[in-house]
Amino acid sequence: NGPSPREAQRRLDAVAQAYLVQNVSRSAAEAESSLDFVEAQLPEAERAAKEAEQALNQFQTEQQSVDLGLETQSLLTQIGTLEAELRTLDIEEEQIKQLYTPNHPSYRQLLSNRARLEERLEQLRGESADLPQTQREIINLTQELELAQAVYVQLLNRAQELRVLRASSIGNVRIVDTAQASFAPVAPNRKRTLASALILGGLAGVGAVLLLNFLRRGVQSPDDIEKLGLPVFATINLVEEEYQILGRKTPAKLVALDAPNDLAVEGLRSLRTGLHFGMLDARTKSLAVTSAAPGAGKSFTCANLAIVTAQAHQKVCLIDADMRRGTLRRYFGTQKGRPGLAEVLAGDAILDDVLVEGPVPGLMFLPTGQFPPNPSELLMRDTFTKILKELDSYFDLTIIDCPPALAVTDPVVIGRAAGSTIAVIRHAVTPIGEIQALQKTLKTGGVTLSGTVLNGFDPRKAKAGYGYGYGYGYGYRYSYKSDAGQARD
Q1: CA nearest to 461, candidates 432, 426, 427
Q2: Residue 179: CA atoms inside 13 Å, Cβ hemisphere, count?
Q3: Strands 363-366 and 316-320: what pairing?
Q4: Given Cys at both, which of 14, 191, 264, 345 links 378, Cβ 3.0 to 4.6 Å?
Q5: For the whole model, what pTM was predicted?
Q6: What CA–CA distances, in Å, run from 77 to 60, 123, 142, 144?
Q7: pLDDT tens string 7-50
Q8: Which residues pair with 316 in a beta bridge?
Q9: DSSP-derived secondary structure for 372-385
């Protein structure tokens, strides 16, 4: 790519020339490296040749010369030739190991040739062992001289070859064709660009509309709920994260105790008052609290409602009836698995033994106990109704924290036994469709939804008409997807 065809050609030709020069330089550098090695070996080879010659002359002088027979001379010649070839292979190996690993075919071939030559040399040396001592010594000295001379000559020849190669500076790369640009430009393609812009603009507009619709589907005000024919007992403002469970494993704080003047606590007091008059005609003094989906804040509402009710000098019993993933124990510091509702329903414990005193006078807490494999079946027993009747004789109000109604059938079973049932709606989170599905689910099971609580109200989002949608999984025991409006147990 370039501003003009001529500029593109010039750039590509420059790249090709740079590659050619680099290749030539690399070849010259390899020759230079090999030449340095050979020249470093030359003085040692020359010294070895002179020492071998002196040793042979001295021995012949001491022995007053010894003539070798034809057979001995032939043996000597063969041994010298093999040793010279082995020395040549040593030089080649020093050079080839700079380019290849021992597993390369060229390197393996060199090692194979060396092994063959060494085997033949051992055979010839064995034959020379049968000669007289003087002839063997002459053979050894002659071999050393010939070998040293041969190595020296080979190094001289190799050095000369490398000098010529370095001076020639010829690489193994050739430029076959120079660059040539086409007549028509590759880009920009105006027609394609215009068509792409139109398509992307249309998709962006559709996406923006869908996104705005997606962000605004949560309940924004109590009016949205009342249009469905459901009363809103109270609106609870959004609290800080330290007062929410939000899936954490650590204990949560009770805003009704730590921040009694918070606006959320005032909303809880309004809820307490509304329930006091709304439950005057209820058949029992028990209140089932559920939601359409997890994350609405029903456990937060139940725990703090129990606190403000007990602070009004009423006796309150708080039951964690979510025997699948109950979390109320984190508000009261109760250990997981402590005997509770599941054991009472199964007949393994009595009510008085499993009730836990709350943080304020007049409040008792009944944990879930060990999570049973069949919570719905346990709740359908007559034992649960008897428990509520027994609690009516001791407490002014029994608050039952239920699982999400669109996820499991437990709230329907609990709602049939409780005096009233309310639902917690999360501001800017719970869609209108979920509330309608919640109404239908409870009505089908014979439970009338007495009213709702708008939880987590954020005035900033309400003013801007802001909300958001979500999907979720409710643990390993049951899951629910809000977009589909369906549940599985």
Answers
A1: 427
A2: 16
A3: parallel
A4: 345
A5: 0.56
A6: 18, 14, 9, 11
A7: 888 899 999 989 888 877 777 777 777 778 888 888 888 888 88
A8: 363, 397
A9: PS-HHHHHTSHHHH
